[in-house]
Amino acid sequence: MTVQQTIEDKLASAIDLRHLEVINESSNHNVPPGSESHFKVILVADEFDGMKLVQRHRRINQILADELSNQVHALAIHSYTEPEWRARSGNAPISPPCASAR
Fold this sequence. Notes:
- By secondary structure, the protein is α+β, with helices and mostly antiparallel strands.
- Helix content is about 35%, strand content about 25%.
- It has helices at about 5-15, 55-65, 65-70, 80-85, and strands spanning about 15-25, 40-45, 75-80.
- A 3-stranded mixed beta sheet has the order 1-2-3.
- It is globular.
- The mean pLDDT is about 90.
């Protein structure tokens, strides 16, 4: 199983998600081809209602603690409630370029 699949499975089993995207952004960074070290996750869940952004991020980091300790170097987290997601027209911010890729 790939790191991306593991991330997708763990998040989907831990949170009742309305929307999930896991994007491997490793190719945008100074890593070997085929790497799975830099990811962006976009999550939409009712569970996030009333949670501060830092609480949402802690929840995701807790779920993916093993991956963040081992394979994943960077994780961009974009977490929304359904109304927040609709207000953004279903779009997440673009990740910034890696400092070593500039």
